[in-house]
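debug: dumping io for the single-chain case to check the tokenizer round-trip. Nothing else runs in this session.
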Amino acid sequence: MKPILALVSLLGGLLAGCGEKPAAPAKSDSAPDSAPAPAGYLQSITKAQKTAVKVVDTAALNKAIELFYVQEGRFPKDLEELVEKKLIPKIPPAPAGKKIVYDAKAGLVMVEKE
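debug: decoded output
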């Protein structure tokens, strides 16, 4: 049994040493590593990030309202009840030029222009 293990070990060592290492990809000198981004691109990214934050805030508030409804059997009177029940740490601020509107009958939060 030992000769078989020795043979397997020997073959494994030989096969491991036979492989060639892949060559590193060649760098192209035609394009720089980092090119400056156009101003319009950066502005659109900033706007998209602000929109994404607004969407996440309303989604989190709506989820907290759903959880409140499951626990209490009713929608909260106002968003402050979510803070009192510790479902959210605080009411998030509205984005500039917008306001957070809560519909207590439907149990939905929306962000609208002021």
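debug: round-trip ok. The beta strands are 98-103, 108-113.
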